[in-house]
Design a protein that fits this description.
Structural class: mainly alpha
Order of helices and strands: HHH
Helix content: over 70%
Number of strands: 0
Strand content: under 5%
Radius of gyration: 25 Å
């Protein structure tokens, strides 16, 4: 038990935070959130690309 306490005391703040997040079960949700954000970013880029192509292919209006 003493060895485990010493190990925790010697950990960096980020390592302790990670351990607490994992124990609390919040790490899983953070990973899901990060994955969802990456997916949304990719989708936004695709939408911008499609809009750009769509605008460039439109036939200009020629009024009479």
């Amino acid at each position: 038990m003493q060895g485990k306490i010493t190990k925790v005391l010697n950990m960096k703040a980020a390592e302790i935070l990670g351990m607490v997040e994992e124990a609390a079960g919040t790490r899983m949700f953070e990973e899901r959130k990060d994955k969802a954000m990456k997916t949304m970013t990719k989708k936004d880029k695709k939408v911008e690309e499609i809009e750009s192509v769509s605008i460039s292919r439109q036939i200009p209006y020629r009024g009479r």
